[in-house]
């Protein structure tokens, strides 16, 4: 471990692109992953928790604990996106079963970790709805205040949404949680659709990953190809969640803007949409530009063992 090692917890709802992001972090020498906490999002909590364990088993990292978290949003009904991620959440791609059973109560586990570790020593890499982090803020504010940095995939600023005209899945799945987290004063970087839709894998990209013969790269290729089977149109697919790991590792590939962000907490189809509101918004660092070619190059290198 070096002074530049990113010690982090991954909070996730795997999920095809979550799996690729996790495999990136596990393959990169830059990250020291201390645990994987799960949240209901792309599919139910039992399946997201099992999938986290399966991904770690593929990577040979049964030493990293999986801790089951929130089974539902704070106050809303969640979404079902099995049509995109498959009934198993991983597009039907074969993964080994978890090497060890999961732990329970992600919020208590996170609080304990943050209080034991040096203040400002742990990043949270959030790939799903922010329910666990909102509960941490509400139930253990001192522990939440010890987070070094929260990097979260979510939202859309200038881009259209993917579950509503302006609403993105992760924020729309639990708008109240996002609102709590954004107002909590944590060092936060939001990675919205404005950049994640620019980081796109083609079939040639997945073929090159598969040809490496490396397990993480081949599994990622199969996962991305499953996206092609479950969605129609276009010659490429966006890699949303891997952008969190890419930003954590190489923030120079992204351009940040500090924006006053407010979350739509209404009941209309755009619940969870982000508004740039100078009166009601909270200043958040938002990634708005990305060098997509270099980002894809880095992702492929890490997945391939480089």
UniProtKB/TrEMBL annotation:
Entry-linked Gene3D superfamilies: Ribonucleoside hydrolase-like
Keywords on record: Glycosidase, Hydrolase
GO molecular-function terms, A-Z: hydrolase activity
Ranges for domain Inosine/uridine-preferring nucleoside hydrolase: 9-295
Record-linked InterPro entries: I/U_nuclsd_hydro_CS, Inosine/uridine_hydrolase_dom, IUNH, Ribo_hydro-like
Pfam families, per database record: IU_nuc_hydro (PF01156)
PANTHER family with a match to the protein in the record: INOSINE-URIDINE PREFERRING NUCLEOSIDE HYDROLASE, URIDINE NUCLEOSIDASE
Protein name as it appears in the record: Nucleoside hydrolase
Species this protein is from: Neoaquamicrobium sediminum
């Amino acid at each position: 471990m070096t002074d530049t090692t990113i010690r982090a917890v991954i909070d996730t709802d795997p999920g095809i692109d979550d799996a690729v992001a996790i495999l990136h972090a596990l393959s990169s020498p830059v990250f020291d992953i201390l645990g994987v906490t799960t949240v209901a999002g792309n599919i139910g909590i039992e399946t997201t928790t099992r999938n986290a364990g399966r991904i770690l088993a593929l990577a040979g990292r049964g030493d990293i604990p999986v801790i089951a978290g929130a089974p539902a949003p704070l106050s809303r009904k969640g979404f079902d996106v099995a049509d995109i991620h498959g009934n198993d959440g991983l597009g039907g791609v074969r993964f080994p079963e978890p090497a060890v059973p999961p732990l329970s109560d992600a919020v208590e586990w996170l609080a304990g970790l943050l209080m034991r570790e040096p203040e400002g020593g742990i990043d949270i890499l959030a790939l799903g709805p922010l329910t666990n982090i909102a509960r941490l803020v509400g139930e253990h504010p001192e522990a939440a205040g010890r987070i070094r940095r929260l990097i979260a995939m979510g939202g859309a600023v200038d881009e259209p949404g993917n579950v509503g005209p302006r609403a993105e899945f992760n924020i729309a799945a639990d708008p109240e949680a996002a609102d709590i987290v954004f107002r909590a004063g944590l060092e936060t970087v939001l990675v919205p659709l404005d950049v994640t839709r620019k980081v796109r894998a083609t079939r040639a990209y997945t073929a090159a990953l598969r040809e490496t013969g490396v397990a993480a790269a081949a599994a990622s290729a199969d996962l991305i190809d499953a996206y092609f089977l479950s969605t129609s149109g276009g010659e490429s697919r966006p890699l949303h969640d891997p952008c969190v790991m890419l930003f954590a590792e190489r923030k120079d590939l992204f351009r940040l803007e500090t924006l006053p962000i407010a979350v739509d907490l209404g009941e209309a189809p755009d619940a969870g949409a982000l508004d740039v509101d100078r009166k009601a918004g909270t200043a958040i660092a938002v990634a708005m530009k990305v060098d997509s070619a270099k980002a894809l190059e880095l992702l492929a290198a890490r997945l391939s063992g480089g």
